[in-house]
Amino acid sequence: MSPVLAGVLQLLALIAALALAYVPLGNYMARAYSSDTHWRVEKWIYKGIGADPDTEMRWPAYLRGVLAFSLAGVLFLYLLQRLQGVLPGSLGFASIDPDQAFNTAASFVANTNWQSYYGEQAMGHVVQTAGLAVQNFVSAAVGIAVAVALVRGFARSRTGELGNFWADLVRGVVRVLVPIAVVGALILVACGVIQNFSGIHEVGQFMGGTQQWNGGAVASQEVIKELGTNGGGYFNANSAHPFENPTPFTNLFEIFLILVIPVALTRTFGVMVGSVRQGHAILATMGTIWVGFVALMMWTEFAHHGPALQAAGGAMEGKELRFGIGGSSIFAVSTTLTSTGAVDSFHSSYTGLGGGITMLGMMLGEIAPGGVGSGLYGMLVMAVIAVFIAGLMVGRTPEYLGKKIGTREIKFAALYILITPALVLVLTAAAMALPTPGNSMTNSGAHGFSEILYAYTSASNNNGSAFAGLNADTQWFNSTLGLAMLLGRFLPMVFVLALAGSLAEQKPVPATAGTLRTEKPLFTGLLAGAILIITGLTYFPALALGPLAEGLAA
User: Fold this and answer.
1) Contacts for 521-526 with beta carbons within 8 Å, 24 or more apart?
2) Model pLDDT for residues 446-492, shown as the tens digit of each residue
3) DSSP string for 97-125
4) How buried is residue 267: exposed, middle or buried, by Cβ count under 10 Å (0-12/13-18/19+)?
5) Which end of the chain has the lower number of beta carbons within 10 A, N or C?
6) Which of 293, 263, 33, 53 is nearest to 146 (CA)?
7) Nearest in space to 155 (alpha carbons), one of 278, 263, 243
8) First-to-final CA distance of the chain
9) Packing angle of the helix pair 475-505, 59-82 (nearest 10 deg)
10) Going by C-beta distance under 8 Å and a sequence separation of 6 or more, which residues neighbour residue 311?
11) Rounded distance, CA 313 to CA 342, Å?
């Protein structure tokens, strides 16, 4: 079987698996977030944290819950790392330095999982399981909760109430993430991913000596890092490591885990607003962009020039033989079009244009299908922008799902889409202008610029993948990337929740003959075009200095 055909078959199998899960999982999540009953374990949690799950919140109160919970998570994870040296199960590792502890705490709480350390050489079992793995669950649940609050803003009228953050958070963990993660972890263990609490031990012979490896609860962390679109690996090689991702089947299964909740949330959205066709339109936009990016990535990586690449069957540098170009391309696109950041190959080793595709995927806002929760609310904000553009074209007040998009709503949407580009471009410019940050670049020229541009793009969009070659474990990068992750995660949530509150206060507007049909293919095309044009106008100059210059010079 040719490598190209193998890649296409993997793509088709993945689409079929997502299609099978779409309706049942989407409907289940809609019921979970609309239910008036509480499970017994949920009641215990509410009692433990002192929350009343039946109290409705307006958007400022909902936002305070998000920020307070996340701040507590940052402080707890920071202290856990700083105290690692005296904790049991630390495997003899020292406490983490202050700047790196801040960076890691901000990273995992912001659902980014950027790692400026070697996981198997820095973090013991307690930090990995009680700290990082726990944040993989709750940070993902926070993202889903904010998305559900925005959906309620569209679904409700004449009220500013968006639900209860604590109830949404707990249900996201207990009813959605934990059950799927348990099943997924069992599948990964059955397929060879390790799950233990063993210490450091020597294995085999390597270049005349031995290698040291430590075990860990890898399968349980691997499944939630993909399912929650987190991305932080137990080992430095991430999902390219055979302990995390041993076979082509586990590789495809992990891609499925990355995509399944963001894809199914479009069904949840459609059910909750009372029109599943609206969810289909959002899914069609996401799917069109995702398939297009996968096709472009496969083309760039299979297009082999020169005898070495012809002999290898494509650009195999930085890719695992057991996954090949097809599996690696699907993984790379899926992890950068979501806020996952896990990698089964090294994006810095991709062709110039291939590396640019991974960057562009993040620059779109990671909305195709995006992160858990963040992909849906990011796409809905872009839908608001698209209907506003359509309204300008025909001279009519824009409407979406029966809600008028007025001055207030469009300001919230505009501020949302301006935050991450400002963070990416300003911080990249500062790093290139100052003398010290440039010393962290392994490469010079266009590729070196791409290393820094990729880092701030990844951090500001809560992705977490790296372009390799950049030594990010410095005070400058640990501090600025940590700030970018926090601001890039929580500032957009402010405007999403403010938009949700504004929409919920409106009374529904009846559809007329002049209403834009947002469930039709015409709107899908308009939405996809708006996303690509806005991103292109924002980032094209920076891309021209990095991956485009490198790709065209090859």
Assistant:
1) 521/284, 523/281, 523/386, 523/387, 523/390, 524/281, 524/284, 524/285, 524/288, 526/386, 526/389, 526/390
2) 888 999 999 999 999 999 998 877 888 899 999 999 999 999 999 99
3) PHHHHHHHHHHHHTT-----S-HHHH--H
4) buried
5) N
6) 33
7) 278
8) 29
9) 160
10) none
11) 25
Check if the beta carbon of residue 382 is closer than 8 Å to that of residue 531.
Answer: yes
Pick from 238, 14, 212, 245: nearest CA to 115: 238
Whether the Cβ atoms of residue 329 and residue 360 lie closer than 8 Å to each other: no
Q: How far is CA 138 from CA 76, 341, 370, in A?
A: 13, 17, 17
Nearest to 93 by CA among 117, 115, 121: 121
138 residue type, one letter? V
Give the integer Cα–Cα distance in Å for 376 and 364: 13
* Predicted local confidence at residue 209, as pLDDT: 66
The domain spans of the chain are 3-553
Are 255 and 16 within 8 A, CB to CB? no
Calpha distance 223→186 (Å, rounded): 9
C-alpha torsion sign, points 423, 361, 261, 284: positive
Encode pLDDT of 366-409 as tens digits: 899 999 999 999 999 999 999 999 988 887 888 999 999 999 99
> Are 256 and 18 in contact, with CB atoms under 8 Å apart?
yes
d(CA 453, CA 542): 8
Q: Is the pTM of this model over 0.90?
A: yes
How many angstroms separate the CA atoms of 110 and 107, rounded? Answer: 5
What token pair was written down for 131? Answer: 């700290």
Closest CA to 244 of 212, 219, 215: 219
- Token digits of residue 28: 């289940």
- N residues, the chain: 554
Question: Quick one: CA dihedral 41, 47, 49, 55, positive or negative?
Answer: positive
